Amino acid sequence: MAEINAAYHSCLKGAPAAAAADDDRQSLLHIQEMIDDGHYHDARSMLMNISTRCAEWNYLFGAVLLKMCELQKAMIYLEVAAHQRPDVAKYAQALGEAKLLADQARPNTMRSRLTSFINRMR
After folding, report:
1. Phi, psi (5° rounding) for residue 97?
2. Using CA atoms, how far apart are residues 75 and 48, in angstroms rounded to an integer?
3. So where are the chain's domains?
4. Is 47 exposed, middle or buried, given 0-12, 13-18 or 19+ CB atoms closer than 10 A?
5. End-to-end CA distance of the chain, in Å?
6. What is the pTM assigned to this prediction?
7. pLDDT confidence tier of residue 118, bands split at 50, 70 and 90
8. Cβ distance 36 to 56 under 8 Å?
9. At the topology level of CATH, where does 2-121 sit?
């Protein structure tokens, strides 16, 4: 009977944590919908209110930052997500796409700096 009571109390202790994890999962699904609907600022605010920083959280935060044109910050969070869960293809794919965007942005930035410098020299 003592073993049953110990097991019962152990289950009760884990129940709040399991419920919180389920709430976080539901929140993350809702945030994904918000991102899909273009509500980036609201999604970012909701993400900041979630205490668990799991791979999905990092992925979604990186996705929001990417949509808000904060490329360098987005890459950091996407790298964390891909590192936390290397088995999830969408994390690696999002990171790859962000890196491509960064590579495409670099030449344009250099070109605009050179153009600006040349125009000042004239």
Report:
1. -65, -40
2. 18
3. 2-121
4. buried
5. 91
6. 0.71
7. low
8. no
9. 1.25.40
